[in-house]
Automatic annotation (TrEMBL), chains A, B:
GO MF, any single term: transcription cis-regulatory region binding
UniProt-recorded name of the protein: Ferric uptake regulation protein
Cofactor note: Binds 1 Mn(2+) or Fe(2+) ion per subunit.
CDD domains reported in the protein's UniProt record: Fur_like
Cofactor: Mn(2+); Fe(2+)
Gene, per the UniProt record: fur
DNA sequence: CTTCATGCAAAATATTTGCACGAAG
DNA sequence: CTTCGTGCAAATATTTTGCATGAAG
């Protein structure tokens, strides 16, 4: 098991490659995602964006999230209860441990688990397209 | 890895033990959950309930789901995109493989994975309160 | 009887969409 | 220029809640 390292993708490059226009709101939003080391939801991204350009709308945040998710540039997480939270893709795949008291998210990765998942899917006659592993825990005192 | 076996809990007994009144809507709703071998959402449970007693309201379904979840009698799943889906608890713990083409849910269980999860959490300084493992896959052809 | 559950309608939350206008290429 | 993206407001989807009434124990 290893903790993952943050890396900064070049979203503008990715967008251009996908033939998507680079506009001011999009530039600001991807900038925010690039700088974020947490897992903000749409509203939080909107707040950070508005601090830079107050004319940005929440709709555009949602639209941009969908767009980026579509080209695989970000991942959408639906942790229990709350709204979707987003995270830049492009780093190594990892799973999440969510602190149920603080909401903090810790990333981790286990090749053993991934391997077991594949075995299980195969035994059931499936190929895994993607998966979701979330541990909800409390800090040991 | 093993597939889990369905078993029928006595919800009325559980409710009584928890000091919760057994009303007509509740009896109908838990009856539906007992018979269900799928993972219906609130609206689907509502539809099945209305077929038995047309006076039942969707609010009551939601309230009952929350109640049953509170006493640990059912589990709430938030599979990607859709609304919460429910399943009777009381059987053995298991995880889910979701067929991305049909929405079918297959239950499975892996002690090895559970064990690895615990190790990981411990290494990160946490105790797992619960977890969620979902494999999204496509039938191998 | 007293407490609690219900149905209904309205509210709250999260997200999507139609439309007219403005900006990107 | 032409296409596409934007903000805004309204719509949608899911879930929760206030309130007056009725049922459970």
């Amino acid at each position: 098991m290893t903790k993952t390292v943050i890396h900064k993708p070049n979203y503008e490059e990715e967008l251009r490659r996908a033939g998507i226009r680079i506009t001011r709101p999009r530039r600001i939003i991807v900038g925010i995602l690039t700088e974020s080391e947490d897992h903000p939801d749409a509203l939080e991204i909107f707040r950070r964006a508005v601090a830079i350009d107050s004319s940005i709308s929440l709709s555009t945040v949602y639209r941009t999230m969908k767009l980026l998710e579509g080209i695989g540039a970000i991942h959408r997480h639906a942790f229990e209860g709350g709204p979707s939270r987003f995270e830049q893709a492009g780093g190594e795949h990892h799973d999440h441990l969510i602190d149920i008291d603080t909401g903090d998210v810790i990333e981790f990765k286990s090749d053993r688990i991934e391997q077991l998942q594949n075995e299980i899917a195969r035994q059931l006659g499936y190929d895994i397209v993607h998966h979701r592993l979330e541990l909800y825990g409390r800090k040991r005192s």
